[in-house]
Each structure stands twice: as structure tokens, then as C-alpha cells.
Amino acid sequence: MKEKILELGASFKDKLALATDAEALEALRVDFLGKKGAVAELMKGLRDVQDKKTAGQLINTFKNEVETAIKEAEETLRRAAIEAQIRGAKKYNPTLNFGRELGSYHPITLATKEVEAVFESMGFTIEDYAEVVDDYECFESLNIPKHHPARDMQDTYYLENGQLLKTQTSAAQNAIMKKYGAPLRAIFPGRCFRNESTDACHENTFFQMEGMMIDENISISNLIYFMKTMLSEVFKRDIKVRLRPGFFPFVEPGFELDINCLICGGEGCPSCKNSGWLELCPCGMIHPNVLEAGGIDTEKYTGFAFGLGLTRLAMMKYGVKDIRDFNSGNLKSLSQFKSV
Ligand code: DAH
Prior knowledge:
- This protein has eleven helices and ten strands.
- The longest helix has 36 residues, at 52-87.
- The chain is of the alpha+beta class and 340 residues long.
- The chain starts with a helix and ends in a 6-residue tail after the last helix.
- Bound molecules: 3,4-dihydroxyphenylalanine.
- Residues 168, 170, 210, 248, 251, 254, 282-284, 305-307 line the site of 3,4-dihydroxyphenylalanine.
- Residues 168, 170, 210, 248, 251, 254, 282-284, 305-307 line the site of 3,4-dihydroxyphenylalanine (DAH).
């Protein structure tokens, strides 16, 4: 039995090395692990063996090794496919010169249009909102009173009259609730500003897309459904996501929704601060104080909100490694992105 397994192991290795696509891997899996595969044959052979226990263990170990090797090979293929996609169709090349062509959309505009189309198809209206707002809109109405520590992370540019450049698209939540009341489904993309030092993944000017859904019986399941649908529609492929608790005073509970970094495939790179993950879409169930400030009846309605990082999404979608390229005004590189 031992020799037989060794022989099969060697043949499996040879075949695995030649299996370079999903079909070949599946065929290999059927050959070895299928109902009539090599492992099943070995099990049948147990009948004629004296020491069934040892032989059984050997077969099991072999089966586990084959399963693990196939899984690993599938994972390697999956990653290679994602990388090829990123490098392929919309390869980002900062030196390309499209010279005499007429104007084109900025990649962030393209990403915005695409996300808008997805939400529009799910019944959301699209709202525009000011970039200069007041303290109430940007903080107070969002359950962030004066001197709340959450303000520390959102220092911004103040005007002499006390108004400020909005730090988050959430600043429009209050006005939009007051404008429409409940039930409500709206998204509102916008430019945000923060007093930040810049690096490959931080900018003092960036884009977010806020969304709110308020109705009777809205729960976290609705939130997860809409987030998943949006991501799979926008990226048009399966994206690894993780949901972890996150604190934002205007939601309870609040979450961070991260996606696997598509620039490095999760290995870690400057675009994802070497973590392999990117915070893409913080979200949560809207805090009752925020609903009340917007004039919504909290006895009757609940809702979710999210703040999608549009700039980050554009980076991932188009394989742009440095966020600063977006504001660089370098038309040679920015005009490569033609259509949605
Ligand atoms: N406004 C938050 C920020 O910029 C992001 C955010 C978090 C928006 C949670 C939301 C939310 O709507 O529910 O950091």
C-alpha cells in the first residue's frame, strides 16, 4: 500500500506541475479525489490489506495532501488572474502620451458614474451638495459635539466666517433627511478636504460617496446586501471583503468594510500601508440622534449609511498606485481613462 501511495504521490506532483488552468486542476481533482478517483480506488484496496488501521491512515494523509495542494494551486491561479486583469485592459502608464486627443473624463469621474449607475438601478436618487458647509452640518448634526475627540481626525480648512470645507460627505446627511424625510434612498458623492500630510494613500483633497437608506425595518442585513451588490457590480469580479467593528459617532453599530488590496493582491504594498487590506467603505446603522436631528421619526424608521472612499475605489479599479497622481494635473497619464 505504501509503495502504491508513493507512486501515486509522484504521479500527482507531475500532473499538478502541468495543470496551469482551472479546468486542468478540476480534472486532476476528479482523477484523484472523485468518486472513481485514485483515492477511492485505494480505499477499495483496503479490503485486501491486513493492517487496515495503518493503511487507512496513510490513505487519509495522502488525501489531505492532495486536497491542500489543489487548493493552493487554485489560489495561485486566482491571484494571477486578478493581477493579469489589473495589468491588462486598463494598464496605468504615467508616461503614455495620447497627444492630440480631445478631453476625457477624470478617472474619479468615471468611478463616480459607475457607482451612481449601480445605485440608481437599486432605486437611489443622486444628490449634489456644497463643499463649504457649517459646523452643524459637518459635526454637530452627526452626533459629534464640540470638543468630541472624533474631531481630531478631521481637521480641515476654516473660513473667516466660521464655515469650513467639508471633511466628509456625511455633512450632507442632515440636509438630505430634512429635504426628503422618510422613507429615503439617496447617494451623494462629493469632494472632501482634510488637513493631512500626503503619502501614497492619503491626500488633503479626495472624493467620497455617501449613501443613506431609511425605511421601516431596515437592518444590518440590508446594509450588507447593498454593499456586496455594489462591490461586485463595480469590480465585476469576486472581491475579498472583511467587515470589522468601527467607531463613528453617527452610526451604531458602526463597521469598517475593507477589501483585499488589488494592487498587491493582499501581500502588502505602499498603497495599502503594507497591510494587504484597504478601508474602502465605512458604514453602519444610523444613530437615533442623527435621525432625530434630521426630523425622522425613530419610533417608526431605522436606516443605514455608508461613506464609500471613491478615490480609493478608483485607485483599486484602475490600478493607480499613488493617490497623488489624481490631483497631479498630469494630463498625459489622466487622459488614458476613456470610458466607463
Ligand atoms: N464620514 C466618515 C469618514 O469620512 C465615513 C463614514 C463612516 C460614513 C460611517 C458613513 C458611515 O456614512 O456610516 O470618516
